[in-house]
Amino acid sequence: QKEVEQDPGPLSVPEGAIVSLNCTYSNSAFQYFMWYRQYSRKGPELLMYTYSSGNKEDGRFTAQVDKSSKYISLFIRDSQPSDSATYLCAMSNNFNKFYFGSGTKLNVKP
Amino acid sequence: GAVVSQHPSRVICKSGTSVKIECRSLDFQATTMFWYRQFPKQSLMLMATSNEGSKATYEQGVEKDKFLINHASLTLSTLTVTSAHPEDSSFYICSASSGTGYGYTFGSGTRLTVV
């Protein structure tokens, strides 16, 4: 079983839609959760960071962590074509090593 | 914000030659740097962790004699792919941490093609 599971997509939505991206994990010791956005042929860039359970909002982005279900989500409101990218979840228990999901490719159509 | 510069962004080399990839933290000192490999439509696979002034820690299955990592200063780590073969063709990405703050900052990646 992989440490982190993420649906690879692709996920195609119309502009303005609400997007929901998800990851599940198996290691209950994970407590640091991150979402990265990666454009084609570029390195990932950090979007959101959450420690332990709960929600965090930043503009159009909301990250949710449900440790009891070992499930994390990233919501994008009012999605834009510029949001089209691959979104990677990452998590760690001690900041020494991160485990990445395989990434979900998102396409927002104008 | 923290910036990590990775060079070159793209390199094509002949089979059997060696290629060096540089990863620099531009505005912070990186106590720890990570090297990842990413295959198309797959996630980042951690290859090794390097701490300034000490030997790199390689993940299981990664050949340390093939992928030489040097972290000689707090702002520079290098990955040298020795005796490259076509199967080494991949996207290599570094990331760096200053030991504080959230997550890690990634470089822009290096597309290596071995012909």
Q: What brief labels describe this structure?
A:
heterodimer, A: 110 residues, mainly beta, six-stranded mixed beta sheet, five-stranded antiparallel beta sheet, 55% strand, B: 115 residues, seven-stranded mixed beta sheet, four-stranded antiparallel beta sheet, 11 strands, 0% helix
Question: How would you summarize the topology of this molecule?
Answer:
The complex is a heterodimer of chains A (110) and B (115).
Chain A: E1 4-6, E2 11-14, E3 19-25, E4 32-38, E5 45-51, E6 54-58, E7 61-66, E8 71-76, E9 85-92, E10 99-100, E11 104-109
Parallel strand pairs in A: 2-11
Antiparallel strand pairs in A: 1-3, 3-8, 4-5, 4-9, 6-7, 7-8, 9-10, 9-11
Chain B: E1 4-7, E2 10-13, E3 19-25, E4 32-38, E5 44-51, E6 57-58, E7 67-73, E8 76-81, E9 90-97, E10 105-106, E11 110-114
Parallel strand pairs in B: 2-11
Antiparallel strand pairs in B: 1-3, 3-8, 4-5, 4-9, 5-6, 7-8, 9-10, 9-11
Q: So what's the overall shape of chain B?
A: globular
* Distance linking N and C termini of chain A: 38 Å
Instruction: Point out poorly predicted stretches of chain A.
Output: none
Helix content range of chain B: under 10%
What's the alpha carbon Rg of chain A, rounded to whole Å? 13 Å
Number of helical stretches of at least 4 residues of chain A:
0
Alpha-carbon Rg of chain B, integer:
13 Å
- Rough shape of chain A? globular
What structural class do the secondary elements of chain A suggest?
mainly beta
Alpha plus pi helix count of chain B:
0
The largest inter-chain interface, given as chain pair and residues per side, is: A-B, 24 and 21 residues
Q: Tell me the total number of β-strands of chain A.
A: 11
State the order of secondary-structure elements of chain A, H for helix, E for strand: EEEEEEEEEEE
Kindly report the average pLDDT value of chain B.
90
**Content of β-strand of chain A:** over 45%
- Cα distance, first to last residue of chain B? 37 Å
Largest sheet of chain B: 7 strands, mixed
The helix-and-strand class of chain B reads mainly beta
Average predicted confidence as pLDDT of chain A: 92
